């Protein structure tokens, strides 16, 4: 019996799905998939299919640049084989029993799983241990006939519960059939049909079904959405023609899966507006507010959607994230997320590598620390200002704690490394969580305080003081082969004003380097 999906790390499962081992699948499931293999020399030009070579447009489905196959044998992609392969990969690596309707879109498991993994990273905040999440509740807007996002999410993460909504009655019926085939997940997945697109489509408050269960889903942790990308068949045709290499298989889908008024921009813009209404109705504290997300197909839509988020948010540091989705193929996709509270995303989930012009303010700053010239006593103890000896690090730790003692902070044992950081030595052996209300270390703050004392007006607050700022501080060593010497890492965990985060990092670096 093969290793179950539950015993494999999530990243390993994802790698196997995005780079299918075709020889393994053919050996294990010859009756199901064997008919879709052919000799490399066979003339396939007269069939509605494509061999999986590096120039095949079917690489939008899975990564076929390198197939582990016997010499002379290749997997042939076609409308039918795409569905069969998806069903087998879901079975083999996720333990899911799917029977996909061949008249609906064939879900690309690789990019859908990448989306779910990114959301998981987005929700991670190991720094605030007192606010562990327990049950995580997510909404899939437009779950579709395959119900693939709820099924992937709950198969990967045991504490996740998913609600899938859709306008299409037919899609809902098919989604429920998928759920019936996977009874082990049925207790953690709910499927609901919604009414009009303009009234309750996203947040199901006006569901066509009973509302007794709706209260359980008011406090969402996240929303995922894979919207229809196009406004018309003409736009789809133009997009496919612009791709490198003509698509090799006909796209099979229902119209409502592909087209929507105004295309993906108007769809996601409406989601942004409705999410703000939903946020105001939530019972959760702002420190555990919902992350709303959407997959984006058209790069040019990102900047306009971010402008709309900032318009609604009216904050100097609007809380949004952009991420490059690793689809495992040449197809580019991005995910856009926004949060109407002040929980900041982990660094690993917060920024795009390829689209730096649309990135939000950074949530992590790592700066080198140049220690002061050591005293004679320090030299005698073995410390060298150019390396990471314990004596030198002890000096920096003492200086750091002395500065933090003048502020309100909580000293903790070393927390787990933040997601997305490289394997650096955690030089201090512990991290600090600092919570302040404003830039209390600055001259500007002191001037504001003096003014309040003179006028007796304590009601006036600077915008930087309206919301507390929570930072995580840590000293890093040099295990990653980078620039020599210790480094200061500060992560923005919670807060409204980026300038407070940046100001603190600059101040504490200066203090550490002072003689």
UniProtKB/TrEMBL annotation:
Coiled-coil features, chain-numbered ranges = none
Region (Disordered) location = 38-66
Offer one example of a GO biological process linked to this entry.
rRNA base methylation
Stored CDD domains: AdoMet_MTases
Instruction: Name the GO cellular-component terms.
Output: nucleus
Q: Record's SUPFAM superfamilies?
A: S-adenosyl-L-methionine-dependent methyltransferases
Which Gene Ontology MF annotations are present? methyltransferase activity; nucleic acid binding
Name under which the protein is recorded:
U6 small nuclear RNA (adenine-(43)-N(6))-methyltransferase
Q: Give the compositionally biased regions (Polar residues).
A: 47-66
One Pfam family in the UniProt entry: Methyltransf_10
Cross-referenced InterPro entries:
DNA_methylase_N6_adenine_CS, METTL16/RlmF, SAM-dependent_MTases_sf
Q: Cite the entry's keywords alphabetically.
A: Methyltransferase, Transferase
Q: Which organism is it from?
A: Geotrichum candidum (Oospora lactis)
The lineage, from the top, is:
Eukaryota, Fungi, Dikarya, Ascomycota, Saccharomycotina
Domain of life of the native organism: Eukaryota
